[in-house]
Amino acid sequence: MDIKLWTKKLEEIYRLAPIKETLNSDIWFDDEYRAHFKLGFKPDFCHAFGDIHGGIISALIDNATWFSAAAFYPNKWVVTTELHTYLLKPAKRKDLYSEGFIINKGAKLAITKAQIKNKDGTLIAYGSATIYITNIEFDNEKAKRIIDKLKLQI
């Protein structure tokens, strides 16, 4: 499958998933097939001291690393086996942007990294992930049916 078409399918699937609304986020791929996400700030993301919780930032790293790997394995289901998050600075209640990169693309494992910046371009966090490439074929229609069922449960 053409990688450009595949990344468009990945964008479509993300936009249908409930996590997109929970995280107030969106996805796009650049010309080098790196995954980008924007997370629009919501007060619901804050910890007791009023700034974005590290778990939310970690979810943004997870998305960027997973989708950056998935782009290079058309029609394969990939899973995160290890995720590291390094928090550097407070997010200061601003929108956040992530960019994922594939570092190593193997037959069964991919190594990815991501960085998170605020809208001023300040580096807030970075992370890495190990992604396992399964033998499971990705089925776009099945994924849509599963997402529809999930939405009925919410």
Question: Key features?
Answer:
154 residues; alpha+beta; six-stranded antiparallel β-sheet; 4 helices; 6 strands; globular
Write a structural description.
- This protein is 32% helix and 37% strand.
- The chain starts with a helix and ends with a helix.
- The chain has one domain (3-153): Hotdog Thioesterase (Thiol Ester Dehydrase, Chain A, Roll), CATH 3.10.129.10.
- It has a six-stranded antiparallel beta sheet with strand order 1-2-4-5-6-3.
- The radius of gyration is 15 Å and the shape is globular.
- With 154 residues, the protein is an alpha+beta fold.
- The longest helix has 17 residues, at 54-70.
- It contains four helices and six strands.
Helix/strand order, N-terminal first: HHEEHEEEEH
CATH topology: Thiol Ester Dehydrase, Chain A
Percent of residues in beta strands?
A: 35-45%
Let me know the CATH homologous superfamily: Hotdog Thioesterase
Please give the domain count.
1
Shape field: globular
- Give the spatial strand order of the biggest sheet: 1-2-4-5-6-3
Q: Report, as a whole number of angstroms, the end-to-end distance.
A: 33 Å
Major sheet: size, sense and barrel closure?
Answer: 6 strands, antiparallel
Q: How many beta-strand runs?
A: 6
| Structural category | alpha+beta
The helix content, as a percent range, equals 25-40%
Helical segment count: 4
Radius of gyration: 15 Å
Top-tier CATH class? Alpha Beta
Low-confidence stretches: none
